[in-house]
Amino acid sequence: MRTALLAAIAILMLALALSACAASRPGPDDRLLLGGSSAQPSPAPSSNMVKAKPGEVDYSCKVDADCAVKDVGNCCGYYPQCVNADSPTFPDQVKAECAREGRSSICGFPSIESCQCVQGRCAAKTGMQGGEQEITQ
Questions:
Q1: Alpha helix (H) ranges present in the chain?
Q2: CA distances to 13, 21, 106, 128 from 18, in Å
Q3: Tens digits of per-residue pLDDT, 1-35?
Q4: Residue 68, SS3?
Q5: Are 36 and 56 contacting, i.e. CB atoms less than 8 angstroms apart?
Q6: How far apart are CA 85 and CA 137, in angstroms?
Q7: pTM score
Q8: Which run of H or of E encompasses 67?
């Protein structure tokens, strides 16, 4: 009986640890983790490129060439995302905010090979084989 209980606890602990490492797509609540403001949700993408506010990452684009893979950071550290190639990113600010709030974790991050412009917003290109994309800050 005790062995079965220990095995069940071990399985639950392993499942919990693995779920903490799973990468997910950022949602509206993750804007603070990605360097944005949590005060308002992201505006809908428009056909015109809009300059981001200071301290906010710009995801807008018109064509694929407007996008680049950059480290935007999160409470786990390095976190690559497709953003506007001219947008600054703020991984150090994100790290400082997480430290100030006492948040940290062991996490993974997406493997992004290249970016594309989808309805006015930079996004990871899926289904590609090969190719290289330089990570910049």
A1: 2-21, 91-100
A2: 9, 5, 10, 27
A3: 666 656 556 565 544 444 444 444 444 334 444 44
A4: strand
A5: yes
A6: 10
A7: 0.54
A8: strand 67-71
Contacts of 59 (CB under 8 A, 6+ apart): 42, 45, 81, 82, 83, 84, 87, 121, 122
Query: What's the full length of the chain, in residues?
Result: 137
Q: Going by C-beta distance under 8 Å and a sequence separation of 6 or more, which residues neighbour residue 30? A: 74
Which of these, 122, 76, 71, 66, lies nearest to 98 by C-alpha position?
Answer: 76
Q: What angle do CA 55, 33, 118 make, to 5 degrees?
A: 80
Q: What are phi and psi of 98, to 5 degrees?
A: -65, -40
Burial of 61 (0-12, 13-18, 19+ CB in 10 A): buried
The b-or-e profile of 92-129 (16+ CB within 10 A means b, else e) is: eebbebbeeeeeeeebeeeebbbbbbeebbbbbbeeee
Domain assignments of the chain as residue spans, ordered by start: 24-124
Report CA torsion sign: 112, 115, 116, 120: positive
